[in-house]
Amino acid sequence: MIIEPRMRGFICLTAHPKGCEQNVINQINYVKSKGAINGPKKVLVIGASTGFGLASRITSAFGSDAATIGVFFEKPAAEGKPASPGFYNSAAFEKQAHAAGLYAKSINGDAFSNEIKDKTIDLIKADLGQVDLIIYSLASPVRTNPNTGITHKSVLKPIGQNFTNKTVDFHTGNVTTISIDPCNEEDIENTVAVMGGEDWAMWIEAMKKAGVLAPNAQTVAYSYIGPALTEPVYRKGTIGRAKDHLEATAFEITKSLADLNGKAFVSVNKALVTQASSAIPVIPLYISLLYKVMKAEGIHEGCIEQIQRLFAERLYTGAAAPIDEAGRIRIDDWEMRADVQAKVAELWEQATTESLPTLGDLAGYSDDFYNLFGFKVAGVNYTDDVNEMVEVPGLV
Residue 209: which domain range? Predict the structure, then answer.
C-alpha cells in the first residue's frame, strides 16, 4: 500500500515501515561511527520501541555488542492498516541486530502488568541468565496497578494556580495564548501513580527476587527538568511531582541493590520532540526556539546523540558517574547552559505567529515529529508501494 501521514490533532494515525527502518539504520550508523563503548553486555529495555528507550537499545547493541531484550506495547499491522511506529522500529532494530550476529528478542504487552514482568524474567532466565543494565523508559498516560486493579490516568496541570503563557500549533505555526486550570490532589496522586517510580521499583524488586540481576547491575530511568518558563506546567506541575517521585525512587532502589553493589540512576535528558511532548502546551514553542539556538551553537542533539553521550561519557567511563546535588546524571547540560537559556528567553518574548519562522526552528520541529512516524526521512521514496505487514523477528 501507499502510506501517507494522516493527522488527528497532535497525533499521527499512520506510520511508514521503510521510513521507520531508515530512521533506525541512521541511529545505528551514528552509534557505530562514535566507536566502541566498554558498556553493558546483557540489557533489558523497558519501553524499548521509541525515543530514548529505542536509542538506549541501539546504543547498547551497536555500541557495546550487548544482547538486548526489549519490552513495549505496540500495535502490529493488519491488512491495509499500518502498525504503530514503535512496532516498525522494533522490527527494524531486530533485523539489523540479527544481521550483526547480536541476540535480540522482544515482548509486546503491558509492562505495568505482573504477567509481562513474569514473562520477561522467564526469558532472561532461559536465554541470558542475568542482565547488567535495565533501562526504564515508559511513557504511558495510563497505568493499571497490577496489585490493586485501579487504573490511574495522568494529567498535565499546574499546581495551585492557573497557568497562562504562549504556545504554538506546529502544524500551522500559529502562536496563541493558552490557559490551564490547576489540578486537585487526586490529579497529583494519579499522575504520580502513572509516571512516578512505583512501577520501576516493582520491576527491580521482581527481578532481584528472581535472581536475574547481575552483580554491579545498573538501572537508569529518564527524567526532564527544563527551564523556568515551563516550570509551572511541567516541573512544578503534576508531571514534576511524578518526576520527583521517580528521582526519589532511585535512592530506594540503590539501597535495595546494596548486596549486589548495584546502582539506580535518573538521567535528566534534554527537551526533544516526542509524541508526548508534542501534546504539552508551551513545550513545542520552547523546543522550536531551543533547536534554533542549539543548532546555531553546534550543540543540538537528538535522542541517539543524547544516549550515546550518556553511555560513553557518564555511565561507562571506568569511573563513578558524575551526578548533581540531587544525585541525578545531567545530560541536559548543553540545553541548560546559561547562554543558551538566556537566548531562548530573549526569543520567547519576541515570538509571534509572524516572527516565529525567523526566530525559531519550526521546520526542524515539524520534521522531527514526522520522523517519529517514519515520514520525511531522507532517502525514502514515499510514492513506492510498501508492505505494511512487517513482523518483529524475535517477538516472544
Answer: 7-148+187-283+300-332
CA atoms of 304 and 58, how far apart (whole Å): 8
Beta bridge partners, 78, equal 81
> Which residues, in sequence order, are CB contacts of 85 under 8 Å at separation 6+?
15, 20, 49, 50, 372, 373, 374
341: cell is 537559556
Total domain count, the chain: 1
Report the distance separating Cα 314 and Cα 324, nearest Å. Answer: 12
In single-letter form, the type of residue at position 328 comes to R
| Distances, alpha carbon 247 to alpha carbons 9, 104, 299, in Å | 32, 29, 26
Give the whole-angstrom CA distance, residue 16 versus residue 333. 33
- Give pLDDT tens digits for 45-62: 999 999 999 999 999 999
- CATH of residue 231's domain is 3.40.50.720
Q: Are strands 104-108 and 142-144 parallel, antiparallel or unpaired?
A: unpaired
Number of C-beta neighbours around residue 329 at 10 A: 22
- If phi > 0 it is left, if psi is from -120 to 50 it is alpha, else beta; for residue 51 that is left
Query: Does an H or E element contain 42, and which?
Result: strand 42-46
CA angle 110, 114, 116 (to 5 degrees): 45
Residue 307's closest CA among 361, 268, 262, 254?
268
**Which residues form the catalytic set?**
234
Q: What residue has cell string 547488567?
A: 132
246 and 266 in contact (C-beta within 8 Å)? yes
Any domain includes 97: yes
Q: By C-alpha distance, which of 328, 303, 158 is closest to 239?
A: 158
| pLDDT at residue 359 is higher than 90 | yes
Domain assignment present for residue 198? The answer is yes
Give me the residue label for grid cell 545530560: 331
Q: How far is CA 190 from CA 112, 121, 157, 171, 230, in A?
A: 15, 28, 12, 31, 21
Percent of the chain with pLDDT over 90: 93
